Amino acid sequence: MAKKWIKRPKSKSTDKDPASALTPWEAYQQQQKTQADSTTRPEPTIEHKLPRLKELRRKHLVRRLTFLLSILVIILIIAGYFMSPLSKVGLLSVTSDQQSPLSEQTVIDASGIKTSDSVVGILLKQRTITKKMTTSEPKIKSATLAVQNFRDVKLKIKTYKTVGLLVRGTRYYPILENGVIAKDSTAQPTSNHSVYSHFKSGAKLQQMIKQARKLPSTVRNGISEIQFTPTKLNPERVHLYMNDGNQVYATISTFAKKMQYYPNIAKEMQKKGTVNLEVGAYSYPF
Rg of the chain's alpha carbons, rounded to an integer? Predict the structure, then answer.
């Protein structure tokens, strides 16, 4: 009887599976070791999950303390400054763009600034101070204020020019170029400006000042006195006394237009006399 050989199927290659190369005992031991490692590994805590938490908290606290200390130091410095003499005005000085008719003390008094005042306070009230100066002293046209060397205050002013002197009683008051009558007065004229007398109406005086300012300086400087002498026929008549000895009658509203011809008329006069510019232009000797 013939034997039949049964062909067993070849087992699959285990080269790709390292575990298949172990014996059953070695595979069992490896499995037990893996289970033991998994059971003994500790659970991670919050500090292990966030290792920088304490460091971040510390940095945040340091920043807050630094900020608070900086504010405290600044407050102490500011308080110390205001308590020290460095915060007070040290030196007050006055300058002008031209020869000022005002004394330095008059300008300082007009500003109201004192050496006991705070420099910071003066800077904060700068506009108020300069406005006060032009209001309290009519001769001041404009004023500026500056602080130098941290403590020194410098006042710079521009003043109105004096164009004449107004006689009131026995006192002479300066007439400024803007038509304002200054408050300070003298018993005698202290300049070569024309003297305005007998002017009671402010409007007529202002009109006369404007007319006189239109004249050339050579003609204007030759007028010694201007008297307001109205009549029924001419309520704007003025009587002028000239430095050359002549006298002039004119009308306020046409004063500048006609008075510019005075030098030519005076040259033709043989003797000192009167020039009438009210109606036309003619002259006659005294």
Answer: 51
**Residues 6+ positions from 197 with CB-CB distance below 8 Å:** 166, 167, 225, 226, 227, 228
The Cα–Cα gap between 176 and 151 comes to 34
Answer yes or no: is 141 within a domain: yes
Give me the CATH number covering residue 221.
3.40.50.10960
- Residue in the structure block whose two tokens are 């966030």: 50
Domain assignment present for residue 29? The answer is no
Ranges of H-type helices in 143-201: none
Distance CA 204, CA 206 (A): 5
For residue 241, give the nearest of 229, 255, 224 by alpha carbon: 224
Whether 13 maps to a domain, the answer reads: no
Is 0.90 topped by the overall pTM?
A: no
**Which tens digit of pLDDT belongs to each residue from 173-205?**
999 988 888 888 888 887 788 999 999 868 899
Cα dist from 195 to 71, 187, 200, 253, whole Å: 66, 13, 14, 19
Give me the domain span that covers residue 118. 87-159
- For helices 126-136 and 104-111, angle between their N-to-C axes, nearest 10 degrees: 120
**CB-CB contact of 112 with 132 (8 Å):** yes
Which residues sit opposite 282 in a β-bridge?
276
132 Cα distance to chain centroid: 14
Q: What is the CATH number of the domain that holds 115?
A: 3.10.20.310
Q: How many CB atoms lie within 10 A of CB 195?
A: 18
One domain for residues 109 and 217: no
pLDDT tens figures, 56-115: 777 888 888 899 989 988 988 877 777 777 788 888 899 987 777 888 999 999 999 988
What are residue 83's DSSP bridge partners?
none
Q: State the chain's maximal CA–CA distance in angstroms.
A: 190
